[in-house]
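Anyone? Bumping this.
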Amino acid sequence: MDYYGTHITKLIEELSRLPGVGGKTAQRLAFHIINLPEDMANQLAKSIVLAKRNTRYCEKCFTITDKELCPICASEKRNGTTIMVVEQSKDLAAYERTREFKGLYHVLQGAISPMIGVGPNDIKVRELLIRLQKEDIVEVILATSSTAEGEATATYHSMLIKPIGINVTRIANGVPVGGDLEYIDEITLLRALEGRIEL
Ligand code: ZN
């Protein structure tokens, strides 16, 4: 319904397409944006355009970034002998918030799910195996989620990587079944990481 005129209604419509944003929230956000000082509103619009335009995947770990290498892969302070395998960039962010993990990551960009037709070729498995050949890796930590898909993905990777002679570990069950890593608190993630078991 167009109560407010074309531009405001359009803004509310666009905001309501965002995940987790219903009609009422979209309206609240739109009013907030309208009431911002002009330069702050411009800055917000510009940030959206620039983030979208410059987004790419790290050439090494495949997380979302805006350079060839993400800040983690580019850092000399990280321990290059350990790779933590996660499903999504937001999982990487969740582990980074614990500030304890100092190794590198590999972002699969999904999980194996025969139910919806996602196989190993649809995620970054081959790219991980190439890294394991090129880099001097001692341990691969499988930190995929504890959903059926996450477990299947971990099992698949364990089968592939163990024969190469690299230690393969799985994060502990501290992460609730079906738990989305993004919403799990840092202490739980930390315990899951510290309690990881050898596969
Ligand atoms: Zn990277």
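Late reply, but here is one note on the structure posted above: The pocket of zinc ion is lined by residues 58, 60-61, 63, 69-70, 72-73 (CB under 6 Å).
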